[in-house]
Each structure stands twice: as C-alpha cells, then as structure tokens.
Amino acid sequence: MLFVIAVLTLIAVWINLPSTTGIHIHWGPIKYDREIKVRMGLDLQGGLQVLLVADLPEEQPVEADAMRAVRRIIENRVDALGVVEPVVQLQGERRIIVELPGIEDPELAISTIKETGLLEFIDAGHTYLPPGTVVKTTFAATPTVTATLPLTPSERVFETVLTGKHLKTAQVTLDRVSRKPMISFVLTDEGAPKFAEFTSAHANPEPPPFYYLAIVLDKRVISCPHIKSPIPDGRGVIEGDFTLEEARSLAVQLRYGALPIPLRVETTRSIGPTLGQDSIRKSVRAGAVGLSVVLIFMLIYYRLPGLLADLALILYGLLNFAIYKFGIPFLFSGVTLTLPGITGFLLSTGMAVDANILIFERMKEELRAGHSLRAAIEAGFKRAWTSIRDSNLSTIITCLILYWFGSNFGASMVKGFALTLFIGVLISMFTAVIVTRTLIRFIFHFLGEALRKKRWLLGI
Amino acid sequence: MEYNTLSAGKGGSMFNLIEKRRLYFMLSAMAIVPGLLAMMYSSLRFGTPVRLSVDFTGGSLLELEFEKPVQPSEIRRVFVEKGYGDTRVQTTAGERTVLIRSDFLTTEDKAELESELEDAFGEFEELRFDSVGPAIGGEVTRAATFAVLTASAFILGFILLAFRKVPKAFRYGACAIVAMIHDILVAMGFFSILGLLRGWEVDALFLTAILTVIGFSVQDTIVVFDRIRENIRRRRGEPFKTIINRSILETIHRSLATQLNAIFVMIAILLFGGATVKQFIATLLVGMLSGTYSSIFTAVPLLVVWQEKGS
C-alpha cells in the first residue's frame, strides 16, 4: 500500500508541475497524445457567455437539422473571430450556448454571432434606397424576420435577384484611393450567370435615371450601387460606411452563410479580464492561508497523528489538482476551474480533515479507556468508519442535487462547486482513511507500543 | 439528583448542559427573531423574504470601475433618463466601483448607456455584465424549488434510515428536522438583514450555501444522536439526562475540531478570497456555526423535553 501511495504521489506531482504540458507516447503501434493543462472558466480568465434562443413564435417547431446548421455556422464565425477554445453547444431544442474566453469587445462579438447574415441583392429599379432602410423582399428565410421589422418607406416588396447562397468567397479589401474598408466577393458558378444577365439587362452608364441593385443584409440596406456596366465574371465589391472591424465581421457572416433561423440573445454574462485575474490571485492567497492554518491546527491539536493527517491532506491537494488538470483516464478529461469550483475544493478539505478528526477522537477515547495502542488504532478507524461513510454519503447526495441544479443554464456556476466538492469527497475517502491508516501503521511498525507512553506525541 | 455527581472521563465536575436549556432556547430565539422580522419586512416591501438577484428575477447587473470617484445617485439618474426607472446603484469596493442593477438590457442598450456614462463621468472599465432574460430567471426559480424539495426528501429518508432501529425514532427525526429548520432560519435571517442593510441578493450560489448547511446540520445532529443511541444500549442503568450529557461531551471535541477547521478555511476566503463568493461563504459560515450550535443546544434539549413530557 505504501508503494501505491508513493507512486500516486509521484504521478500527481509530475502532473502538477507547471512544466508538464502533455503526454506524447509514440512507441511502436501505441500512440497516445494528451495535453495537460489547467483550464480556467470564464469567471477566472474573463470572457463572454451568451445564451441564444431561436427567435420564432413558441408554437412554431424548430427543426433539429436547422439548429445543427446554426451551430455549425456560429462555430465558423467564432473561429474566424480568432477566439481560443470557444464553446458552442446546443441546449434543448431551441437554444445555443456560446462561450468565448478572453473576448475584448462583447458587443461586436455578439452581433457577429447572432446576425442572421442573410445577404440579398435586390432589384431596386430606379429608386435609390439610402443605407439603413428596412425593406421587404420576395425572399424570406423565415416569415418572422420581415414580419417583426417596421417597414419603410413603403409597402413595396422588392425582388431578390441573388442571395448570400450565391457567394463563393467574401473578404475585406481596402479601397485603393480612400483606404476605406470594403468587401470584395466572388459569386458561385450558379450565381455568376444570373448576375451577368441582370447587370447586362440593366446596365446604364449614362445618367439619369440610374438602375439600382441594392445590397441588403438582414433586410437592411447596406449600400445601393447603380449598375454601370455588365459584370460577366461574378466579381464585385460592397461599399459601405464600415469600420475595419465591421467590415471584417460582415465578411465573416457572408463567408459562412446565413443562419437558417433568426436568433435572439436571452442571457449575456461577460467578465472583464481584470476581475478574472483579481479572482485568481485572491483565491490562491485565500487557499494558501486557509490550508496552512488547517495544517498547523491539526499538527498542534493531534501531534504525531496530526502530522500524518497533514501529509495525507497535502497528498489530497495534489491528487485533486492532478485530476483537475488531467481528469481520470477513460472517465472524464479534467475540470474547468471556476471561482465557485475552487471554493468547493477548499471546503472539501474541511471534510477531508473531518474524517481524520473522527478517527483520532475515537483513538483517543480508546486509549483513555486503557486499550493498547495497536487496538486503539484499529478500533479508531473501524468505529469512525460508519460516521465517515454517512457524512460523505449525504454530501455526495447534496452534490448530485446541486450538479443537477447547476446544469440549468442560469445556475451554471453551481456546477463547478458541486463537481469539485464531489471529487474532493471521493478522494478524501482514500487519503483521510487509507493513506492515514497506512502511514500510522507504518510508524507503529517502527516505534511499537513504546509510543503509547509518549502521551505528548499522541496529543492525549 | 444523580446527574450532579456525574464525572466526565478524567474526573472533576461536569458542566451540565441540559439544565440550562431555557438559556439555549433564548439564545436561539435571539438569533432567529431579528432575522424573521427582517424577512417579514422584506416580504412586505419587496415581495420576498430575501432579496432575489437577476439569476431568479431576470434583469441586468453591471459592474463598472471608474477612474474617478462617482456618486451612485448620479449614475442612477442617467439610467432613469433613458427610461430604466427601476434601477439601483451602489458602490462596492471603494467609491470608484459601482454595481448597477436594472431591467433586462441587451448589449446594444448597454453600449448606449455606457457611452452616456462615459460622457458624464469619464473613463471606466467594465468588470462584469450579467443580463438574464425573464424566461431563464423563471427556469432557475423552478429548478431551485425542485432542488430544495428533492434535498428535503433525501434528508428525511436519511434520517428515517439512520434511526430505523431506535425506539421512538420519530422523536429523533423530528428533533433533527427542527434543528435543521433552526439553521435555515438563522442563515436566511442573516441574509435578509444584510439584504436590507447592504443590498445583498440571493443568487444561485446562495441556494448552494443553504443546501450545504442543511447537509452539515443534519450530519452534526446525527453524530450526537448516534452517540446517544450507542450509550442507551451500553449504559442501561443511567437516567436519560445523564446519558445525554455524556453523549454530548463525548462528541463535542469532534464537532469543535471539525468546525474550527471549516471556519479557518471560510474566514481565509472571506478575508482574502474573490469578491463574488464572499456572500456565499458568509452565509455558509453563519449556517454552519448555527448547525453546530443547534445539534447540541437545540436538538438534544428538545429531545429531553419531549422525553420528560412524554413519560
């Protein structure tokens, strides 16, 4: 047993070393690669968490396929924003959770994600539509988008010539003269002939009246160029009053297509990087102070057994962090640390020492009753076990209930607490009972009953 | 009477816990009544015994750190002028950091308000922004109710199981539950008072604190009751009160040592830890202290009173 404990300690220490970044085994046919690192939640590293909901009437069913497509498109858009380790996941039938660590500008990120991104080229005829005008078109991705928007200037329905679907690529370029950002695009093989046909039919280099082909995003006009000459090769540019950021975000939306379902932001949580770093620093300090006091208390109050419990507690801490970093092979892949999660761990150390306290108090009682040291040690562990089991069982049940509660989106911070507390309780059963017992037996093996006389060492 | 001559292990006179029960019940009342009054007042004024955060009600919470000190009332005026009449502003750490609670804001609404604030009060940094839609708030509330009911069911089951072989098991169970309710009332009362004084609001973590307190409270009581059960079997001749006193003295070391450790850790978090978990830890600390107290000074004396009246 002592050997097992020593090996586990070494493994835990190795995983916890900051220099350990992963396991890479390439040995004959065996190939195993695994990254090892501390994952921190949004509350610690700062970032943005958004819950998006399908913006359709309650009674209208949402197709699972469409939602999956929405998810894929959002993933692409998020990747294009350059976010490291984003999370995009479906929750239930009509919700999507997006988590973006380290985002500096939440507003822009949200609009990039949630805008439907439906691009249309509409036949505006001889009417110039100023940018910002909301229009009704013959093409409707979903009936509700147009239904909810106030219509200006008239109830005229414009004909959609092309949509974003006909776009092959879109990218930001700078105007050679004005240095203003614009978006250049290339149409698909299907779109190019349509575009060529329409432009040659209405090309009118001589003023006036111009013939306008308005470019509309999500039913809102972004620019309204007139057709100067036929465009046969399917290449063009969208000019507008964009900042570079806006142009980039628009290009991202165009490139990855329109969302088949419009989305609404239901809940936003954003945490600035300052608060996150502050939380990390403070938690580390609180943990160090709290644990040191506990270690000192156990040592003073229980002397030699206290020292052994302290060793077990240090191993407890190492094992916990190793699991947060590495997970348990084949079971789960580590824990994302959050502030409540760290708090859960700190509280669970209280439970780990509680088991030792129960055992040591029993041992003292047995010694006072005049039993031999060996008998007292064994009885201490044996008779305290029911209490330890009961109290840990009830904590585990509390953890399960809390974990369930925390899996509701709005209460997600509870989840980290429940998880670390749960892991802590399980590990404490090992360290506080098995490890401490092994260490005590080991010491007893060397010192024997003579120890019984050294009341000072036993803290009786 | 016999119990006056009882000795505790090593000899010497033993202080008598049970005789002073009136004092203990008084102390409990002193801890609970102010909290109850606060909860009543809070219910009348805000509709709930403890103030609920945006997690439950829906709405927005914005924390900003300005470069210069600001007046909460002036910030509130900006929000009111923009049509957010139901806005509360308070300073948190120092005079430069403010916490603004308002109706649900979209990120566009927030950006507009922030540019107004920047014009009026200068540069600031956005520390956090939580905006919870009403649908989510409702869900969290329902889930919280369900979590509390499930936890209560489990705890009842746990108590029934622990005392299934004891004569008059119902009395033990009932006393453990009274002690648990005692602790919930103390913790909620504490929070309610601070809700009135400092604007503390219940979030999802508060529920975690309450459920954790419930778990610990029941455990503490069960440890003492377990010992009573054991001593009843082993010392048949002794009067009930003597057995009770003995059991308390035998378990008090464990209770105190365990509590002390938990208290060290919690005080460390309170003093040095992150701001967002402080209310959670404070509630937990109060609840756990009450849990230790009530297991010894509420549950056990109640059991004795019942025993006396019953036989």
Name the descriptors.
heterodimer; A: 460 residues; alpha+beta; Multidrug efflux transporter AcrB transmembrane fold; 2 domains; four-stranded antiparallel beta sheet; elongated; B: 311 residues; Alpha-Beta Plaits; 9 helices
Textual characterization of the structure:
The complex is a heterodimer of chains A (460) and B (311). With 460 residues, chain A is α+β, with helices and mostly antiparallel strands. In chain A, β10 and β11 form a beta hairpin. Chain B is elongated, with a radius of gyration of 24 Å. Chain B has a four-stranded antiparallel sheet with strand order 2-3-1-4. Chain B has two domains: 212 residues, Multidrug efflux transporter AcrB transmembrane fold (Up-down Bundle), CATH 1.20.1640; 73 residues, 2-Layer Sandwich (Alpha-Beta Plaits). With 311 residues, chain B is of the alpha+beta class. In chain B, α7 packs antiparallel against α8. β15 of chain A pairs antiparallel with β4 of chain B.
Brief rundown of the structure:
In chain A, 52% of the residues lie in helices and 20% in strands. With 460 residues, chain A is α+β, with helices and mostly antiparallel strands. Chain A has 2 domains: 2-33 and 272-458, Multidrug efflux transporter AcrB transmembrane fold (Up-down Bundle), CATH 1.20.1640; 47-270, Gyrase A, domain 2 (2-Layer Sandwich), CATH 3.30.1360.
Please specify the SSE layout and strand pairing.
The complex is a heterodimer of chains A (460) and B (311).
Chain A: H1 2-16, E1 22-27, E2 30-35, E3 39-40, H2 42-45, E4 47-54, H3 64-81, E5 87-91, E6 95-101, H4 106-114, E7 119-125, E8 136-137, H5 143-148, E9 157-163, E10 167-174, E11 181-187, H6 191-202, E12 212-217, E13 220-223, E14 235-238, H7 244-255, E15 263-271, H8 273-326, E16 336-337, H9 339-368, H10 373-406, H11 413-447, H12 450-453, H13 455-458
Parallel strand pairs in A: 3-16, 8-9
Antiparallel strand pairs in A: 1-2, 4-6, 4-15, 5-6, 7-9, 7-12, 10-11, 11-14, 12-13
Chain B: H1 21-46, H2 54-57, E1 59-66, H3 72-81, E2 88-91, E3 97-102, H4 107-121, E4 124-132, H5 134-162, H6 169-198, H7 204-234, H8 240-272, H9 278-310
Antiparallel strand pairs in B: 1-3, 1-4, 2-3
Helix pairs in contact in B: 1-6, 1-9, 5-7, 6-7, 6-9, 7-8, 7-9, 8-9
